[in-house]
Amino acid sequence: MSDHPVFAVVGHPNKGKSSVVAALTQNDEVQISPLSGTTRVAQRFTLRLDERVVFELVDTPGFQRAARCLAWLRAEEVSADRRPARTRAFVEQFNGGESFADEVALLRPIVQGAGIVYVVDGSLPYSPEYETEMEILRWSGQPRLALINPIGGDHYVEQWQQALNQYFSLVRVFDPLHAGFEQHLQLLRTFGQLDPARVEAFDRAIDELKGYRQQKLEQGARIIVDTLHRLLTYRQEPGLLPEVVGGVVEGDEMVRFNDRLNRIEREGQRALEALFLYHRLEPEIARLEVRRSALMDHEQWADWGLSRSRLTVVGAGAGTALGIAADVGTGGASVLLGAVGGGVVGGLSGWLGGRGGKGWLRERLPDWLPGGEREGIGPVGDPNFAFVILGRTLAHTAAMLHRSHADRGSFRLGNEELGRMQGLELKTQLRLLKLCRRLIREGPQGRAGRKLREWLLEQLEAHL
Question: What is the pLDDT of residues 157-179, one digit of tens each?
């Protein structure tokens, strides 16, 4: 017998057994399909804390010949105390054959000592045909828990509860696609009740899972700050022969710059996904497409889920509130002024360290090309860019943390999720802008990086 708890997840085909396994073991690589009979052999999945196994779930095929199986068990009259041995005899006799391949794969882990988690669909009416399956499981003599999975709604949950209570000592409703972390912990407590000898072990595991989750949130905040710093400071060296039109870099140089911004952002997203054990996510989110003078264009802000009128940095007097010198005469805020209709935002484009220039994106040309010395492209100097990145990253992370590992649907992030930054209080927006400006100077390990990590951790905890 294993030194950790093992539970066989069983039931009728296509009732969500694999979804339960994927959700509870936090494994999005469990095969799930709407087609009946996707699981043809028993597969074992574990929930681990570092290298220690907390518990193991066996994803089993569904019953295919339940009536014939029960008839075989009853063909020899035995007392209740001998029924578990009779069940083991069934597995031994038909092991390796085709007659009861699914039933043998289903019952083998049970006769080896696994507890039973029986899954039914609470959106469909109860039918006596399920009693055959439940009677077979009762013959095994193993502790049994029933889970009602409301796949298409909870219309018949009460009906199922009344029937299941006659066969199972514990009955719970569990939606693997929408259950949150606390519901997972509650189910683990139920597992402990199913295996009384290991109640203390499950209680300890629950406390460890809470601490482990907190550690991951802290690591996630660190990844976000590191990615934010990379994006805010990214500067691209020029190609050998950039295309120049009227002294302005065009064509492939800007394409490369945008491609690199998107790669940096996706690298950060993948690091977060790996941290929380998501291996199949491909977020559907508007691409970062920085244009030299259009970052403040209202259509582009809309693509990123931001409302121009709600951002602190385009509000009158924001530049003064930030303590940034207003010097419109240098041309440093010319792009911003056109976007806000004359609002007092002078000098905001110098928030990245007091640089002047002809716009928010630094571009210079080599001496041997028209237009003067070229030093490369970037970093992006518009302070709103920090809000873009923070909003997109928080939207991605919060949506991921709310997503079940059993969910195989699209991972789409819309404007409502992306625009969470503009709902912040004025003082919070200003504080974040100051911290982002200092982050660029100090790096992720400085005091600003620590303060940003603390704020991000609060946001992640609040959205769990």
Answer: 999 999 999 999 899 999 998 88
